[in-house]
Amino acid sequence: MKLSWIFWLCLVGFAPALDAADVLSPQAVDQRIEQVRTRGVIVQVLDQDRRPLANVAVRAEMRRHQFLFGCNFFLFEKLPAPEENRRYLEMWSGLFNYATLPFYLGQYRPAADQNEEPRLREMARWCQSHGVTTKGHPLVWHFPGPETNPAWLPRDPAALESVLREHVPTVVRAFPEIAYWDALNEPTTAWMYKTPIGKWENSRGPLEAARQILEWTGAGNGSARFLINDYNVRFDLMSLLAIFHPGREVRMLFDGVKNYPQNYHQFLADLQRRGGQFQAIGIQSHMHMGNWPLKTVWQTCERYSDLGVPLHFTEVTVLSGAHKIMNPFNPKWNQPWPSTPRGEQAQADYVEKFYSLLFSHPAVQAITWWDLSDREAWMDAPAGLIRKDLSPKPAYDRLQSLIHEKWWTDFRGLTDDQGRLGFRGFCGDYWLHLPGRAEPVVFAIDCARGEDQSIEVAVQKTAGAK
User: Fold this and answer.
1) Residue 41's domain is classified under what CATH number?
2) What is the phi/psi pair of residue 167, to 5°?
3) What is the mean pLDDT of residues 387-408?
4) Which domain CATH number covers 156?
5) 17, 19, 121, 316: least CB-packed within 10 angstroms?
């Protein structure tokens, strides 16, 4: 049975992608962005007696996207020089409104009676004061190493379950300001690992382990939203190379609890049927071995959107250097791995198409880049939007132009005889500037609502009004 399953998966890996030329054309992408990410707004300006004011100059100034444009925030205050830390924050905040904070169990709790809560709280406070939405990553992960499975964890699955049952809700309650959490990382690959957490997941069965973790978080019972996060989302040769490793296939054949790598989509559907409440689907897209074809990007969105919850592209890596089959257990094996002028241009061109396509899909709620800088990037790859010296690559400038210029609204106009004016704006937070008001009026355009969203504001009658 399992051999036939592997054979079927290999065949699917070589199946041709469906023709999606019309869906992928720049014109179609821009049209969908207009439909999906903007809404019509009607502003009515009244005087203190609620009479309409005509010919009033109005400016609607966008302040923040509703869509979550994110990046991990792991280098916060970790660079050696104050000027470098200042520069990092300047470059980070110049693009993003969504930060992934590190809650790897071994980093957060290097010892059973010790935690790094003060540093995480400082990071969360900075984000909150700058209007940045936050996500904790991850609560539970089976990957080997002291950052994810510290030495103090018990090896016995039953004893470990008691630790996780205490740890998971304690962390979530300690950070009520964090809006999203990766509750469980890469559950479809738990079968590969004999770490304490891996053994516990497999003793429970990965589906039941995921359901249990979501129950511990209180998913669905508060304002925080929880994700399952995985990279096992595609069916092609590159994905097979990422999933399969010599020797593990043999173990898979003799896996008594059937914890072999399962289709992620099927895993999530089965988890929903078991009552697991996750509020978003995390899709990793590390492209160290090659950029995803845009057809595959679109088909991935279409496939996972049928589960009825928003999609978060949680870990986006597009290189500005050569693609290669990497060694995730020994980053030095991958070196040298430089960023090159040609690679930087190719990175910028692909990033523009990739972000535009995702921004145009109605199921996608967030895109998170992994890592901002080449300095300390995962796998020591040329994966940043900025170089090791913190100077911007072309991809950084390209995203800046998209997120804060092309997909940004700054509208000016005059009210008509009924004190009204209408405009179309990208969904997000705004300041409305009017004469006669010292402070701007704060309002939002919400993509969850329909067209002709209205805002009514009263001002003192001015000389320019009639």
Assistant:
1) 2.60.40.10
2) -65, -50
3) 98
4) 3.20.20.80
5) 19
